[in-house]
Amino acid sequence: xxxxxxxxxxxxxxxxxxxxxxxxxxxxxxxxxxxxxxxxxxxxxxxxxxxxxxxxxxxxxxxxxxxxxxxxxxxxxxxxxxxxxx
Length: 86
What we know:
By secondary structure, the protein is an alpha+beta fold. The protein has 3 helices and 3 strands. It has helices at about 20-35, 50-55, 60-65, and strands at about 50, 65-70, 75-80. A hairpin with a 6-residue loop joins strand 2 and strand 3 (about 75-80).
């Protein structure tokens, strides 16, 4: 890899500056407070799941948007949740 490409990020991946991060965090907190006032509860689904469970009942579009990798222990395919990524 040449020196110029060392800090490039993949397409769709962004790094936020501190002011951008604080703006986004402020909006996130306001939304969480609003949803809480409506009675919704906070859940945190796993970021990575085995692909067959992640894609159960979904269409081909979601599969195409899912970043895939291999679990080194089981050899099974994992998927990064597309609904948690930009």
